[in-house]
Amino acid sequence: MKKRFLYITSLCLSMTLFSGCKDYLEQVPLDAPATGQFFNNQTEMNVALNGIYKSAYWNTGNTPYQSIMDGWTDIALLRAVDLGEGNFDVFNAHPKAIWTFAYTTIQQANTMLEGMEVGKNNVPAAAYNRLQAEARVLRAYAYFYLVFMFGDVPLITKPLLPTEFYSQTRTPKADVIKFIYSELDAAAAVLAWAPADPGRMSKAVALGYKARTALFNKEYQVAADAAKQIMDGAGLNLNPNFGELFTRTGQTANAGKEIMYQILHSEADANSITYLPLGSISRAAGGQSGRFPQQRLVDMFEAKDGKRIDESAVYDPAKPSRNRDLRLKYTVAIPGDTISMNLKTLVYDIYKNTTSFRNASGAWTTSTNADFDNAFGPSKSGVGLLHAKYTLTAEDAFTARVGFIMMRYAEILLMYAEAKIELNQLDDSVINAMNLVRKRAGQPTVEVAIQKDQNKLRQLIRRERVAELAMEGFRWFDIRRWGIADIAMPQPVMGAAKDPAKVPASPTFKTSTTHDLNSIPVYTGSENLRYVRENRFWYPKLTLLPVPQSERDINPLLTQNSGW
Fold this sequence. Notes:
This is RagB/SusD family nutrient uptake outer membrane protein. About 35% of the residues lie in helices and about 10% in strands. By secondary structure, the chain is an alpha+beta fold. The protein has a domain at about 40-70 and about 85-190 and about 545-555: Serine Threonine Protein Phosphatase 5, Tetratricopeptide repeat. The strands form five sheets. A four-stranded antiparallel sheet has the order 5-6-7-8, with no helix packed on it.
């Protein structure tokens, strides 16, 4: 009987963690054997593992959930009012979706890990241990998001019986994190540094998730040690071309093996496509722009001399694209930039109803500019800026297969440097890690004068995380773990100049020591010259997402986060 319940439980949890399953309880599965009888050999175990990988792609509108999370922060926005505005409640669809996606991944992993014991003797030990380890990393990945987005969460490590659905309680965050560590350590002891196949978990990825978990939990020595293991043993390096990381061609080559784990899309499956570029691409290029950067993101990038724009001698507010950190042009499209999106090359313009397009012969022609007057475009719906990251890929945006990067080596270097800075262990390894990332971006190396100054290095590493990792799903967590969300969030959404002939003043970053430390720009006095959207708000309860009310309705033993 227990074997039937394993299947039923997995089926129910693929819809939601604690949804009702009563209609299924008297039915025998008609389209698959019970999972307890299923994993008899390596082929069947591989099929189960593939299902977990598929479930770990948390998809919203054919777009990875992690790719929209920066839109809930101070550096980006989504066209429709969303979590960033701070006025959602316990019925909001996003917390519900993330909770459901995570527990679906967990339940599928639990089902595989228990079910595969049946066929253990039929599989070579090395293959069995690898399959098991990959499933454990995927389960830890799901718990990582749950614990840092919801805090205390139910810790479920086996397939639930129907009688257990309504008795789950929230496990303390500290205990869940200990479980994550134990899972990742066990997996790292088994897995090879390189993945068995592209898109699979590896020893490097397991240790990377350990470092990320520890950094976010302020266990800096654990984070530094895990990152250092990767730096010393994995044989990874940076792609010399930052922009190639976010194109299909560049990802296929994966120079330097920088990309450690990404969501892959297969040519063999016509439906295996992503709308990640489409949702951000210029309307003039045929895109459906619904996600936009904020001006704050633009202004956090350094000038070419390595100085913040309020301190640089080479920054010109009338020409904000010039003399800047080269990562800026691969992250944000600014009016006046020449961009190639959706197999079209054009001059991005929001100030007039025509713009220049390059035709197939290389000649330039003038044509209608939808970025100027489209009701859903960047000037009418956004704040005059476009995402460049993941949109400059040479693909048809309606059939794109560029993969979303879940982990790459640059993040490992930055995590190592940040952890060591927080520990005040300011040795050459910290500066070398930062300089590898800065040199790739064409930025000067870390100034000798600040190499032993913990606070100045903290300021620099926080700015580096924005410049390097913007739009990759980290900012939501960073402003919370640094304790700056109450300053970064409650401001109006600012954009580009409304009139290019009236250049707004540069923002100030020194409203307070916290603003200065975290390079948070303030636009007092220039708001009337810029595109501006809604005011955003901040309340302490927004530190965590609410436990979805639908889950609490099903299981009253689930408590709610403070303030919700």
